[in-house]
Amino acid sequence: MASLTPAQPARVKTCLLTDSILLHPNTIWLPRFQIGNPAAVAFLSPKETPENILADVAATFKQPMTAFLSKEPSGADMTVEHFSVRYFTAEEETSLCIHASLAAAKIIFQTKRMGQEVTSLKFITKTHGVVVARRMSDWIEVELTKGDVAKVLGSEKERIAKIVNDAFGKSLTTHHVAKGVGMYGHVEVDEKDEIRNCQVSAKSGKTGYSINAITAKSSTGREHFASRDFVPFDSLGGEDHVCGSVHALLGPYWATKQALPDDEEIRAIHIGRRGGNLRLFWFYPPMSTLQLIYDHKIYELWSWESQQNVHQTAQVIKKPLTTRGNIRIAYLGPRDANDPESLVIIKLARDNEVKVLEREYRVYMDNLRHLQGSVVPICYGFYRGKAQGEDFACMLLEYCRGTVTYSIQERNHQIMLGVCKLHQAGILHGTLDDMHHILCSNIGIRIIDFSEVIQNHRCVGATPLLTHPSSVAASRNGCPELVLMEKIYGLMDLLYRRP
């Protein structure tokens, strides 16, 4: 048996009250700003609007952050709605902004753009996956994955401490310095240092990190900790008055330091010029497991993103369906079942291929969720573990085989419509000239293999024509992949068409 004790990923729930500006073609709403981080929320398509126009709009309003939104097709869950989103400061685009996501969610809920049954919003970002915002009475909640940090020691700690002292204009007692994934710097100072009312020179406080959180135990006792965050954007004046994402690091740090129980509320406050209050909850989501029986071995795999607290067995029964050697057919069922009976497709990955498979899983869940079961296979989950000391993972997909009962013409129309829907979802497949990536069965067509796709694709002329191939070939304005598909399936349609 190959197994691994899982490293369980913690989650941080951030709840924040925020101010915002609503922009759409006929109305501008300007609330009174008192505390918190203001944000502009513009219902202007982040997919269809040229990037330079988005940047110009953000620069014109010169808010700390502008979120550009457009509605995406709904899925089967009536309590969830989907939006595409991009974030811009007055100077540049950023990959993620939690406070702008919270502001957007607040506007959507307050202006009743959704039905009362909608309680969650999924914001599909350009490069940072999906941000989920939930309505919680008077608060909006966003769930973040706990950020990993590494302690900084020696000369590097001394360097950062000196920069922070220079920025605050006085000597602070530095207890702890750490760096988070990518762009976060974290400095804990003594609660007696009083960082609230200091005039800080953000330009002299550049540590090499994009976000610098200066934090201390709360001196009032009403909160567990206080912080100020400094960033290199002039439109923010060098300080981010309420930063949501940094609390994926700060919340777990202070919960551990103060020995707070899991899932107990952590009270936080930003103490800059504007400031804001946050409620944090640090918890471990229920784990799901998969016992994979494959090649006379048993692999124990885990997932925190699939259906929570579900425990199943998958038994591989057949060799590859295609020339790709990592695809198998398996029976899937509950662990306590004598013989699992549901057929599924399993896509396997080892070592360096695991990240590629995980990216494909994210495409299924973030970009193509609304097309599952109609254009692409239903995705049942992503599980990972170890096998012979290597990373090992699998993705479970809908079984898509069976006798085709419809005409060639209907099949071709379904294929073209399916490809167009992929493009409308911002996905350029890139390898559809390989017929193995389009499956036809009694349940309809399914397009598969999204390991090499291009995301955020903007396509011109996403309309299936199925006219004479020569007219398609003459077009120079169409999307190349759609033109290619039209050549293939338009020609096949003509060959099989009866007078």
UniProtKB/TrEMBL annotation:
It comes from the Eukaryota. InterPro entries: Kinase-like_dom_sf (IPR011009), Phenazine_PhzF-like (IPR003719). One of its GO terms (cellular component) is cytoplasm. One of its GO terms (molecular function) is isomerase activity. Keywords: Isomerase. Pfam families: PhzC-PhzF (PF02567). The keyword Isomerase applies. Belongs to the PhzF family. This is Protein kinase domain-containing protein.
